[in-house]
Amino acid sequence: MNKTLIKLKHPPVFLSTAAVGGRKESEGPLAFAFSQICEDDRFGMDTWEKSESEMQRRALHFALSKAEMKEGEIDALFAGDLMNQCTGSAYGLLEYDIPFLGLYGACSTSVEGLLLASLCMQEGFGRCAVVTSSHFCSAERQFRLPIEYGGQRTPTAQWTVTGSGAFILDNDAAGEFSCAESCVRITEVLPGRSIDGGITDANNMGAAMAPAAVDSFTRYFEESGRSPEDFDLILTGDLGYEGSGILRELLRKRDIVLGDNYNDCGLLIYDREKQDVHAGGSGCGCAASVLAGYVIPKMESGGFRRVLAVATGALMSPSSVQQGQSIPGVAHLVCLECGGE
Fold it and tell me: Is cis: bond before 238, omega within 30 of 0?
């Protein structure tokens, strides 16, 4: 097997992060993690699609403000969403005069963006921004049925997060930040592979994405020599309740046991007992919001020292689902660490 783990020579650092969310997110356990909440999910717009674009604009605005930076100081912008041709990102970030790289990795897009930005920064990019989003209503309209239809959701279905996360990264080639104890760095990345587990049910994305997460975890632990116990937190996004259970079971068959330090973004962002989200959260905004609003700030405050983040995505389209094709999954991985080596 070819080695796919990349240890970054100059680990980029997070200068700032920000997350915005909607009403349902404000009712969940991570409500405190959002820079801004919109109670009607509209963000002042007249369509759900425009609302999602506005979320991205606001998330990047908050991240730039926290870093006390202007857009001209950013070399590249990596952004993505769930809508056709990444229109949410393209329209939402129009006002920013930054080179734009649109991405589609479904729910894995935030970590895909962090991975690609990190690799570009090894080759001379000074500072990069990553922004991703999803909106429950725009995703339902595109992938399933109009909200007004009121269709019954299956127990394995996940709730698309109305949220956006933004990250500002700086190239630390000069070592300016490398020894700061509160500084969070991306030290390793591992690109995911498309894995098709044969799942055709678009209402069971956790099962569709779990085999890809198994593949990425297996490759990472084999190539790095590390074990699950080496991390304060191992985080997937967004397998939800169904996919997380499948992941544990499949990894156990490979003698990789995930302990109590494992969790999933789709389970963290909502309270499944109090909120009607069935198997948990999903969407490009899920992992992005949890990482930007909760995980990285907690690392900066000393709550976590080393985090392994593996974002999963279901690589489907409305047409592929309607034609009965199976749903491939992908799982991109980044290792986040605090302070110096």
Answer: yes
Q: Which of 170, 202, 224 is the last residue of a domain?
A: 170
Residue 175 lies in a domain: no
CA-to-CA distance for 184 and 88, rounded, in angstroms? Answer: 28
Query: Which amino acid makes up residue 20?
Result: V
Whether 179 maps to a domain, the answer reads no
My answer on whether 117 and 240 are in the same domain is: no
Burial of 178 (0-12, 13-18, 19+ CB in 10 A): middle
**Total number of domains in the chain:** 2
Q: Does the residue 58 lie in any domain?
A: yes
DSSP sequence for 206-261: HHHHHHHHHHHHHHHHHHH---GGG-SEEEEES-HHHHHHHHHHHHHTTT----TT
- Contact (Cβ atoms closer than 8 angstroms) between residue 163 and residue 268: no
Q: Dihedral sign, CA of 203, 208, 214, 217?
A: negative
Q: Are strands 195-196 and 100-103 parallel, antiparallel or unpaired?
A: unpaired
For 133-188, what is each residue's pLDDT tens digit?
A: 999 888 887 776 666 555 667 889 899 999 999 999 999 866 777 657 789 999 99
Phi, psi of 220 (to 5 degrees): -65, -50
The verdict on 60 and 90 lying in the same domain is yes
- The per-residue pLDDT for range 67-126, each reduced to its tens digit, is 999 999 999 999 999 998 999 999 999 999 999 999 999 999 999 999 999 999 999 898
Burial of residue 181 (CB within 10 Å: 0-12, 13-18, 19+) is exposed
Distance of CA 171 to the CA centre of its chain: 21
Range(s) of the domain holding residue 134 = 6-170
Domain end among 170, 194, 228: 170
Q: Are 33 and 290 in contact (CB under 8 A)?
A: yes
pTM greater than 0.90 (yes/no): yes
Cβ atoms of 23 and 40 within 8 Å: the answer is yes
Whether residue 152 is contained in a domain is answered as yes
